[in-house]
Specification:
single chain, 345 residues, alpha/beta, Rossmann fold, Dehydroquinate synthase-like, alpha domain, 2 domains, five-stranded parallel β-sheet, binds nicotinamide-adenine-dinucleotide
């Protein structure tokens, strides 16, 4: 890891008197960076738990395995947990930390673009249950997030595309300048994503979370693209079709922008700008009728559903969004059904 992050971590460890350091490690990252944890100067005992970072492991069963492992190692309440990996690792690890012995302190070391700008920040954690994404979880905040591009060098292309989906979302809800700069981008890679785009996205999320940590108002804006995105992600994985989180969010942004245009919240030009740009960057998947019909059922399980409505944030112009918009379930379903034609036109 870069020297600055190592020294932040060392200082944090020496300022606190933890009994041990429990590292939940994405095994791919551990394999790529075998020396990371050896760089930590502190003499605190380190226990590593490698695991496969896949969505099916973001589960209560995996969390239970980890808790049993921790109990077997007699890890006490003064253990510091370090989640080293992408969003799957920080979501699962945050959930484990929040509940182990009623809560131990934890830190995140994000290794994907998506977790660097989004998932590792903000204390939302959770596991999936019965096809319901993040169906069980808590708000529980990390003591520290070590934000560095260091680990991104080895990120596979599809994971760049995934993180870019959240970066796009940030630009659409809050930063027209970055959205405009992105328009010339032909390819999403370590070299083409500008560092100047990442820090504002991180700062934006940090600020929103500190103003509204428990998502009672302002923070809901970060869910733009996610109501539809989660449904696409869940049904795709059920059909063994690999669509990453950020890719699904990007498709969700198109569908939800279509709804915003129908409600005359978003101009026709802006909608076509959003749609055409996302179409240029992302491979557009053709969903089967069966998948679309399952998506329609899934949307009814949305955590935000109340009566027959879901309140979702909608983009009102490039760079800003309106947080609460009561949308009828039927309308969301119709927009989902229109997904294909929306891309083909
Ligand atoms: N809690 C939140 O606020 C929040 C926000 C957004 C997304 N999420 C969650 O995050 C998850 C997605 O996380 P993600 O996209 O960060 O990645 P991930 O954890 O799903 O990892 C993606 C893949 O990249 C690999 N990988 C990770 N870092 C690598 C590196 N440096 N080099 C090579 N390979 C590496 C992993 O092993 C894995 O195969 C989803 O479950 C989503 O629900 C949570």
């Amino acid at each position: 890891m870069d020297n600055n992050s190592i020294s932040i971590l060392d200082n944090f460890l020496s300022d606190n008197n933890f009994s041990s350091l429990f590292i939940l490690a994405d095994e791919t990252v551990l394999h790529r960076y075998p020396d990371f944890w050896k760089q930590i100067h502190s003499k605190i005992p380190q226990i590593i738990y490698p695991f496969t970072a896949k969505e099916t492991n973001k589960s209560i069963e995996k969390a239970t395995e980890i808790w049993n492992f921790m109990i077997d190692r007699q890890l006490d309440r003064n253990t510091l947990m370090l989640n080293w990996g992408g969003g799957i690792t920080s979501d699962l690890g945050g959930f484990v930390a929040a509940n182990y012995k009623r809560g131990i302190r934890f830190i995140n070391v994000p290794t994907t673009l998506l977790s660097l700008i989004d998932a590792s920040i903000g204390g939302k954690n959770g596991v999936n249950i019965s096809n319901l994404k993040n169906g069980i979880g808590t708000f529980y905040f990390p003591d520290l997030v070590l934000k560095s591009r260091y680990f991104l060098r080895t990120l596979p292309q599809e994971e760049w595309m995934s993180g870019f989906g959240e970066l796009l979302k940030y630009a659409l809800i809050a930063n027209k300048k970055i959205w405009n700069e992105m328009q010339t981008l032909e390819e999403v890679t370590y070299y083409t994503i500008k560092q100047e785009w990442l820090q504002p996205a991180i700062d934006f999320k940090d600020n929103i979370v500190s103003e509204d940590p428990y998502e009672t108002g302002l923070r809901k804006i970060l869910n733009a693209g996610h109501s539809i995105g989660h449904v696409i992600e869940a049904v795709s994985s059920r059909h063994h079709r690999k669509i990453t989180h950020g890719h699904a969010v990007a498709l969700g942004l198109v569908v939800e922008s279509n709804i915003a245009m129908n409600h005359e919240l978003l101009s026709i030009d802006s909608f076509y700008n959003i749609k055409n740009y996302i179409k240029k960057i992302y491979k557009i998947t053709r969903f089967s009728e069966q998948e679309i019909s399952e998506m329609s059922i899934f949307i009814q399980n949305d955590k935000k559903k109340s009566h027959n409505y879901i309140s979702i944030p909608l983009i009102t112009k490039i760079g800003s969004a309106k947080i609460e918009n009561e949308i009828k379930i039927e309308e969301l379903i119709a927009a989902l059904v229109n997904l294909q034609s929306s891309f083909l036109n």
